[in-house]
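Changelog note: in this version the structure field was regenerated for every chain. One regenerated record is shown below for reference.
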Amino acid sequence: MQAYVLHGAEDIRLEQAPRPVPGPEEVLVKVRAAGICGSDLHYHAHGRCGNFIPTRPFILGHEFAGEIVASGDESNEGLVGTRVAVDPSRPCGRCKLCRQGRYNLCPDMVYFGSASVVPPSDGCFAEYVVAPARNCAPLPDGFEFAWGALLEPMSVAAHAVQRSGGVSGKSVLITGGGTIGQMILLLATAFGASKVVVSDVKPFARSFAEEQGATATLDPTDPDCAAQAAELAPDGFEVVFEAAGVGAALTQAFGLSARGATVVQVGTLPDGTEIPANALLTRELDYIGSWRFANVFERVIELVVSGRIDVRPLITRSFPFTQLQDAIGEATGADVIKVQIENT
């Protein structure tokens, strides 16, 4: 089969690789659609993603959907031909956190297309992928593969909303209008937030958020930003999602939050970022981390099928599988939400 193998910074090669063979409780998935994540872009640009440094060349990609074409044992033979989206998280299933249902925090987690383990775990920028059968969520009739490839980042957003303790009837601020921020907007609106405001320095992100139903948008570089926010939420925002992953956005998130508010950290901040601890103390803010996701994958499918969220506008552009290099170039552009590759 063909697969894109990362060899180093800006060095990803389309190579011939052995087609993987599924073992017991595994299936072989023919990849039909795959999304390019920010982590994929970091690996491509720098040869690493933060502290995750590959120890050998490996296949990137973890957002994907496709068709089951083979099974590793008779018990799953009936799944052959099923259209699925694949949850890329593979926890141990045995540790205390897994048993508590918080498998996203499993210390032995193996994630598709990641150098968080040694050796790195191969991902989905390939024609075929072996996956645990339990990780494959069947797609309903009419549910496109491209939508299935959005389920992983949508699940990250859904987990963040769940971690907030609920947004129904509350004022919500999202700092950072990238892919995850825009998805949180859709979900917060679907779950009944009284108003949802998106703050981003990029005009495209602000205009896109307005098109997707944001109550208003803010430009954090505008000198009048704080005054504009006060008009929208005079007592501050009750729930804030920090999805930009930059210190200035975190400062804004705390500054515009209400007393007693919940601030959810979704974006990955640089090590050493200062946290306004006194604001946490004197205003009794709940500052909560949200890492990957757990127990929401199928729920996101239900939300899409019900029509409560429309994921179609999130896909900026799709490229053929053979044009991954071009797709990566497009994904690094300023005016994109999600770029995918497809293999028909």
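Spot check on this record: The chain has two domains: 2-150+311-342, 157-289. The chain has eleven helices and 18 strands.
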